[in-house]
TrEMBL record:
Domain Ribosomal RNA adenine methylase transferase N-terminal: 47-216
Annotated signal peptide: none
CDD domains in alphabetical order: AdoMet_MTases (cd02440)
SMART domains: rADc
UniProt catalytic activity: adenosine(1779)/adenosine(1780) in 18S rRNA + 4 S-adenosyl-L-methionine = N(6)-dimethyladenosine(1779)/N(6)-dimethyladenosine(1780) in 18S rRNA + 4 S-adenosyl-L-homocysteine + 4 H(+)
Family: Belongs to the class I-like SAM-binding methyltransferase superfamily. rRNA adenine N(6)-methyltransferase family.
Entry protein name: rRNA adenine N(6)-methyltransferase
EC number: 2.1.1.-
Organism: Ephemerocybe angulata
Composition bias, Basic and acidic residues: 1-10
Protein role: Specifically dimethylates two adjacent adenosines in the loop of a conserved hairpin near the 3'-end of 18S rRNA in the 40S particle.
A molecular function (GO) term: 18S rRNA (adenine(1779)-N(6)/adenine(1780)-N(6))-dimethyltransferase activity
UniProt keyword RNA-binding, yes or no: yes
Residues bound to S-adenosyl-L-methionine: 40, 42, 67, 88, 116, 131
Length: 318
């Protein structure tokens, strides 16, 4: 993953830049241009406390906080944890967080990293807590799940629609490629619904807090393969699996991947003179998946089908 330029702050903040006029009271923070980074400052102290309490922090915990804003969550985390690394895009808000703990015992427990969470180096941590900037919701989840060593728990705030997709179950309207990909690697559940008026400025949508607990050890499945298959079959989740494989370009991609696999196995490319469609149909018929639909398949079903494809040399990662 490419390394972004980041800055670590260990001392008092520099004087703030000259204020610019706000574009409007309904979509900007009066102090900081939070709209630029998709952030909304959590102002409700009771909600902030509920989020921190949900993490069940230990005095020995090292916590990663993403998007601390002005530090309303940060100061509550510092009361319970050993150390907090806060990753913040806006230098002015990063300075505000440091200002809040300056001259207190908590000052030595806090490190603020200025930069894009998707790109900066992540230190070791046991717990992640985030009032997530909306535009990095999906990248944040998958960066956390790919991080090693595994963390214990993440308490993450998202737009409610995104949170509902994360926690959706097979057979429900919101079960999707995102749901399956996340739930392959973690147990995820909704724990708190947050009113839009708990933020400054209020977002246009409601929010929810989810608890994400990585499956340990993680399943021995290559994510690119699992996601590649899901990309195809969830393109139209209520359509049959076979029907989704007829989409433009899918068979050509699978044929190229299979030729590569056969060559690596030192098997003839025209093995059994069978077309990729014929191989696919045999797999689907043998597994009784010909009329199956992704919208109804759970994680076990998806893993069994992926394994069956792999046994016949059908792969999904380029």
């Amino acid at each position: 993953m490419p390394k972004a330029t980041s800055e670590k702050l260990f001392r008092a903040h520099k004087p703030a830049a000259k204020k610019q006029e706000a574009s409007g009271p309904t979509n900007t923070n009066p102090l900081f241009n939070t709209a630029r980074f998709g952030q909304h400052i959590l102002k409700n102290a009771q909600t902030a406390q509920k989020i921190v309490d949900a993490a069940n922090l230990k005095p020995t915990d090292k916590v990663l906080e993403v998007g601390p804003g002005t530090g309303n969550l940060t100061v509550k985390i510092l009361e319970k944890a050993k150390h907090v690394t806060a990753v913040e895009m806006d230098p002015r808000m990063a300075a505000e967080v440091l200002k809040r703990v300056q001259g207190t015992p908590e000052q030595r427990k806090l490190e603020v990293v200025i930069g894009d969470f998707v790109k900066v180096d992540i230190p070791y941590f046991e717990v992640c807590i985030s009032n997530t900037p909306y535009q990095i919701s999906s990248p944040l989840v998958f960066r956390l799940l790919s991080h090693r060593p595994l963390f214990r728990v993440a308490i993450l705030m998202f737009q409610r629609e995104f949170a509902l997709r994360l926690t959706a179950r097979p057979g429900t309207a919101l079960w999707s490629r995102l749901s399956a990909n996340v739930q392959l690697y973690a147990k995820v559940d909704n724990i708190i619904n947050v009113n839009r008026n708990d933020f400054r400025p209020p977002p246009q949508v409601e929010s929810s807090v989810v608890r994400l607990v990585p499956i340990d050890p993680p399943p021995p499945v290559k994510f690119e393969e699992f996601d590649g298959m899901n990309r195809i079959i969830f393109s139209r989740p209520n359509k049959t699996i076979r029907g989704n494989f007829q989409a433009k370009g899918v068979m050509k991609m699978l044929e190229q991947n299979r030729r590569t696999w056969l060559a690596m196995q030192e098997m003839p490319v025209d093995h059994e003179n069978e077309s990729i469609q014929g191989v696919l149909d045999k797999i689907l018929e043998a597994g009784d998946w010909m009329e199956s639909r992704a919208s109804k398949m759970d994680i076990d079903d998806l893993l069994k089908m992926l394994s069956a494809f792999h046994e016949q040399g059908i792969h999904f990662a380029s």
